[in-house]
Amino acid sequence: MPATPLATTPLAPITLLGRAGQAVCIDTPIALAPMAGVSDRPFRQLCHAFGAGLVITEMMSAKPELQDSAKSRLRQIDSTDPEPRAVQLLGNDPAELALAARSAVAQGAQLIDLNLGCPAKKVCKKAAGSALMAEPDTIARLLDALVAAVDCPISLKMRTGSDRDNRNAPIIARIAENAGLALLSVHGRTRADKYEGEAEYDTIAEVVAAVRLPVFANGDIKTPEKARAVLAHTNAAGIMIGRGAFGQPWLFAALKADLMGQSHYTAPTRAARFQIVQQQFEKIYQHYGDSLGIRITRKHLGWYAEALALDDAARAVFNQFTLPQQQQSWLATQAATPQTTRPT
Question: Which end of the chain has the smaller Cβ count within 10 Å, N or C?
Answer without folding.
Answer: C
